[in-house]
Structure formats: structure tokens, C-alpha cells
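Dear colleague,

Thank you for sharing your sequence with our group. We've completed the structure prediction you requested, and as agreed, I am returning the results in plain text so they can be pasted directly into your records. Please verify that the sequence below matches your submission; if there's any discrepancy, let me know and we will rerun it promptly.
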Amino acid sequence: MVRTSRFRRPPGLVHVVAETAAVAGAGLGVYVVLGYLGFLPRPLFQFLGLAAGTALFPLRRRFPDAVLPVLAGLTGLVPVLGPVTAATAYTVARESDRARERTRLLAAAGVLVVVVAAAAGPRLGPGSMPYGLALGLVLAATAVVVPGLVGTVRGQQRRLLRALRERGDAAERARLLADSEARIHERSRIAAEMHDLVGHRLSLISLYAGGLELSLARAEPGLREEAVLVRRTTRDAMRELRQALGVLGPLGRDTGSDALTDATGTRADIETLVAESGDGGIAVELDWTGPDLDARPAPVRRAVHRVVREALTNVHRYAPSAHVTVTVAHDEETVRVAVRNGAPPSPAAPPAELGTGRGLTGLRERVELLGGTFDAAALPSGGFRVAAVVPAEPGDAPDRVTGPAAGGGDRPADAYPPAGAPERRTAEVLTLVCGLVTLCVLMVLGIAFVYAAHPDGRHHGPPPLPRVGDTYQEVGAAGVSDNKAVRAAATGHEPPRPAAAVGCVYPFNGATETRPGTLTVARYCFDASQRLIAIDRFDVPSVRDAMPWETP
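Please find the predicted C-alpha cells below.
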């Protein structure tokens, strides 16, 4: 079974109708030309065969192993079906990706055309088996072999270009992955240095504050609370520093008290975050659509967890009295997360400490590193919305090319159509049309040559010689007419005419000089009903003038 390429999408209905109409028009053109030349036996049968083959043509991509042999057999009976079979052989050869099976199918189709044409020659073809065999060879070459070879070359060219594109895409993905790895390693180095330098200083501050707390507990009990505040603030700063370093470090290896676990980002984890916010006095509800995320990669689950947690933290800080909706939609390709809060019933008191905005920036970086999109903006109703779309499998997500190479935007690289695609498509269509027209011309010339070469055809050699029993008109149509010079030469030298003869004809084309001084002439005698009753040949003396050197 011939396997067609799985990379090529099936054409649409408009494309199929256009292809079918084109090949049907080509076959109809061959039908009209052969009919005009007089080389179209059984016109009705030929037309019905053309209609049947055209009806099978749209099925050539789905059933190539059946459609091509059937059309090849019909072409041996109906030569005007040649353009349809040629287009089918071209398509099957172009879209087949198995060389041996493609060769066997084309060879079987060619042999089938020759065998059927030779067998049908005496009844439906030129009139004899040898000329039917010649017609089959012409049709096999023009309807199967040539289009099959062209389709094979075209298919190999397409597969080569596809392989080159895939190799180029793989190289581009490898380059982007290497750049991403380099950025991650650099961020990890920065995080390690910050942890070593700043963390060490904060640890010393916390240690000194603890010692100061113990000293003030005996000397100045009133100042002890200030020392406790310093120690707690230092501890909080250390914890926040570790969380910030988790953003700079590699995904899935975050630091801090809430490091990644197997449950991070799953439905149970998100429900826990929602429940904790509800215990904190926020009216929050969860809307989860699709399966759980426990089978998804760790970076995806971590990103979902961070988006929900950061958004709920901001709600606690800026709009604790607003109603919040957490939406998670998981399908085979993406995970969509959205946290939306409405406007608070009453203006909220300004927070004691304003945020730095680093949380949303870190979320955006985390999501975009996975190939997703992030958006955070205020709503016209007075609320706020945080939304992220994360690929379910980051390794299969399309690479995003930014910067000058991509026009300065975040548009995916495969969203840009190749330069000159419409022009190449137009040139390809024109080339195929010209090739189909050329094949039709060659097909008509080959069929006409076979029919014209057959003795029983309309256009052949000299007409047959007259025979006894032919009418006067049939003898004249064969080129026999009376010649006065030959009649005069035969006078007195001809044998007696038949008793029933009422008139004779002495043609010039029947006179032949057999030996010097003797001329053989022919005589055609007819009876009263203008029927040829006798053909006589006899010798008469010939006279010629002497040459100057022969005179005495």
C-alpha cells in the first residue's frame, strides 16, 4: 500500500473542485480535438468513460492504490481520459513517501494501460491488436510514466525542503535554548552572590540584634521591644530575600520556606491557597476546568502556584474586602490562570508598606520563559485582573523570537509567512497548467498518429485498385479515367472486347513500357449497368523520336 505524506494537510473543498474542473476541461479538450480529426470511435462511450474517470479523480489522495489502476484501465478503453490519469499519477507520485511502492504502482498502471489498449484495439481502438498495442504505449508514456516521474521529482524536492526547514528550526530552537540556559546560569550566579553577601550581612544583623535583646532585657527593659523589632525585621528581610532569589534561580529549584514539592500547583494546592485566603477574611471562590496538573512538568505547576499566590497576596494588601474569583482552565495544550477581584465596597485604607512591583515582574518573566503570556491590569469597574497562559508542555511550545530579528515584537517566529509565498504558489500553478497542456498536445498527436497509420483509417496510402464488379463511380474514385492518347495507341492493337461490354476506359496510369518498342496498356470494360466486367492488359507498339546522334 502506498503511504502518502502525513505532513501535508488535505486540501479544502474549493481546491478539490478547482483541480477536478481543470482536469475535466483538459479531458474534454482532447475529446473535442480527436472528434474533429475523426479519430474518436464510439463518441458516447468515450464521453461516459471521461465522466466516470472524472468522478473518481477527487478520491486519488485517499485511495491511491485503487484509483490509479482503475483510471489506468479506463484509459486503455477511453483514450480521452488520459489527462485525468496523468494528473492522478502526478499527485500519487508527489505525495507518496515510499519509493519502492510508488515505483510498483506506477509500473503496474503503465502495464495495465498497454494491456487493456491492446486487448480493446480490434473493437474499441484503431482496429487491430498491434495498433492497439502502439496506442497503449503512447498512452502509458504520456498518462503514467512522464507525469509519474515529474511527480516523483517534485515530491522529493518538497521533502528535501521540509527536512531543511525542520533542521533550521531545530538549530534555532537549540540556539534559543542555549541562550536561555546561559541566562538561567547567570541569574543563578547572581542569586548565589546575593545570598552570600547580603544574606551574610543580614545574619550578622540578626545575631547582633539577638545579643542586644538579651543585654537590654537586664539593663533597659523599655528598649527591649525595639531590639525585638529589629531582629524580626531582619528575619523577614532574610525570608523575602530568599523568595526573591528563587525568581532569579532556575525554575523548579526555588529557595525559601515554600520550595517546590510534588503537590505544588495541583488542584489541591490551589484549593489550599484559596482556603487560606478565605480564612483571612477574603470572599474568594475557585473555578477549575479540566483535569488536574499533577502530570504536568514542575515549571508549569510552579508558575500556576506563583500566579495564584501573588495575586491573592495583592488582594490581601490592597482590596481585602473585594470579592475574588480564581479561574484555572486546563486542556491538552495550555493552562489558563486568572485571578480577578471586583471593586471593594468601601475605599480601602492604604497599606502600611507599598510594594515594589517586583512580584508581577517576576511572574511575567517566569511565564514568558515557559513560552506563555502574562497580563495584569486594572479593570474599568474598579477591580484588578491577573491572567497567565502557560503551555502545558513547555518543550513543545513554539519559540518566541524577540528583538530586531523578529521585528521588535513578541510574535512567534512561525507566524511570519515565508517571503514570496504567493508568487511561488502562482508560478507553481502556471507550471502545472503548462505541463498539463503540453501532455494533452503530445497525447493528441500520438493518438492521431496511431489511428492515421492504420490501413483502415481515414488517412492512409493510395486507394485500392479497382476490382471486377465495381461500379463506374467506384472505379473513377480509385483514380481510373480515360486517356485519349492511350486509346489511340490501343486502336487496332487491342483484343476483342467482351460481348456484354458497352464501353471501355483506357487510363494513362495503366500504361507501362515493358521493353523497347512495346507499351503495355490496361483496358477497363463496363456493361449496360455500369459495372466493371473485365480488366485486360495487352501490348501495343510504342513510337519515339530519334535522338540527334541517332540520325544518319
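Summary note from our side: The mean pLDDT is 81.

Kind regards,
the structure core
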